[in-house]
Design a protein that fits this description.
By secondary structure, this protein is of the alpha+beta class. Helices cover 32% and strands 24% of the residues. The protein has 9 helices and 22 strands. α7 packs across α9.
Length: 401
């Protein structure tokens, strides 16, 4: 089987690469994934998937039915990407998909149209060759991961596979978890006055200045092998547009990366008293720390207010899915495969929160993601295609009991 898969993966290589380039050349910012969704759906149909559909939220799902002798697997990748920024800052055009020195360049090559192209073709090569996996295989191309994971969190309400593989960049090693992300807002109100008479108002900046300083002295949880939770102030907004007015309210966004076991409620319970102490130093001020909520609209026209939270997760290092995944990849790729922890949050957190055990395997290196040097080694795309095909045939045999 391994030899057969390897030769099929090699044969589909050129088609997979040019499909990936097509995806890169088709912009798909969060909320506007429609054109890429159509490309992916059409490609799945062309590759003889048993069923292809788009759900209400704009996720595209392809199904290859199994032999009913094993559990179902979902391969999960997001279609959206972050903004490419100024094209002049890139060494090659961000929407070009050009190949130079063995790397395909552009926004979304590693995060994560490369993985999507490899997944679509890995299951496609089984479909075309008439190979039935033990259990059903789903390839889910989801929307709006970069803004919190709305697509996957809705998808798992209708499709609940026995296990999942998320294709975020793992340098083609096997990932088994990550810290989560909790978006928070510290909102502080004072009293707005003319900036020439600050004594007559209450300046909310005085509170936030104290608050930011205290953040640096917070005791943060640490857990092996995830490292320490971290908190970073990011955006700041004032309710005024004029620089000669003391604002009445300011809002500071915080990006909190939490280790498994630390919940959004734990974080709010820790931060509330810290802000209260700062408010007490500035008479007349008030405020609170709240969970950030995003108002999202999908390309299909649905709207949703969605909490800015990616759950953290860690699948046990001895979980059968991790062990079987590692063994399968080592054998198929004919090299050692490490078990690692992602440095960033993924849709795996939403899958795990829905009770779906999830591992990660994806082409490309995390350090190029969200930068103007985003690229994916073409050899890794080819290797990932073989890796996904092998996982498709083997993970379904893992006992889920
Ligand atoms: Zn991503």
């Amino acid at each position: 089987m391994n030899l057969q898969l390897a030769s099929l993966a090699e044969q589909c290589g050129p088609e997979m690469i040019s499909f990936c380039q097509q995806l890169i050349r088709t912009p798909s910012p969060s909320g506007d994934e429609q054109a890429v969704a159509r490309l992916i759906g059409d490609e799945m149909k062309r590759l003889d998937y048993d069923q292809v559909w788009t759900d209400d939220w704009g996720n595209v799902i392809g199904l290859l039915r199994g032999r009913n002798e094993g559990s179902s697997i979902m391969f999960n990748g997001h279609m959206d990407h972050v903004d490419p920024g100024n094209p002049a800052d890139w060494p090659y055009p961000p929407l070009g998909g050009e190949i130079h020195d063995g790397h395909m360049w552009g926004r979304g090559t590693t995060d994560m149209k490369g993985a999507l192209a490899a997944m679509v073709h890995a299951v496609g090569l089984l479909a075309r060759a008439g190979i039935r996996p033990p259990g059903d295989l789903y390839v889910a191309a989801v929307v709006q991961e970069e803004v919190g994971g709305l697509g996957t969190s809705k998808l798992v309400q209708t499709i609940r596979p026995d296990c999942a593989v998320v294709g975020e960049a793992s340098s083609n090693q096997l990932a088994r978890g990550h810290r989560g992300r909790v978006g928070l807002v510290a909102q502080v109100r004072g009293r707005s006055v003319h900036a020439s008479v600050p004594d007559q108002g209450v300046n909310p900046h005085a509170v936030l200045a104290r608050f930011v300083q205290r953040l640096e002295t917070l005791e943060l949880v640490s857990e092996d092998p995830f490292g320490r939770s971290t908190v970073a102030p990011t955006l700041i907004h004032a309710d005024q547009a004029s620089s000669n007015v003391i604002p009445g309210e300011i809002q500071l966004h915080l990006d909190w990366r939490n280790v498994p076991g630390e919940t959004a409620e734990d974080i709010l319970a820790q931060l509330g008293p810290v802000l209260d102490a700062c408010l007490a130093d500035v008479p007349g001020s008030e405020g609170e720390v709240v969970l950030n909520q995003r108002r999202l609209q999908t390309w299909t026209g649905k709207t949703e207010t969605f909490p800015d939270v990616f759950p953290s997760y860690g699948l046990d290092a001895h979980h059968p899915l991790v062990l079987r995944g590692q063994e399968t990849l080592c054998r198929a790729l004919d090299r050692p495969v490490e078990v690692t922890i992602w440095s960033f949050a993924t849709d795996g957190g939403h899958l795990m929160a829905a009770g779906v055990p999830t591992i990660g395997f994806g082409p490309g290196h995390a350090h190029t993601v969200h930068t103007v040097r985003e690229r994916v080694p073409v050899s890794m795309l080819a290797e990932a295609t073989l890796g996904y095909a092998a996982l498709a045939m083997e993970l379904g045999l893992v006992s889920q009991s």
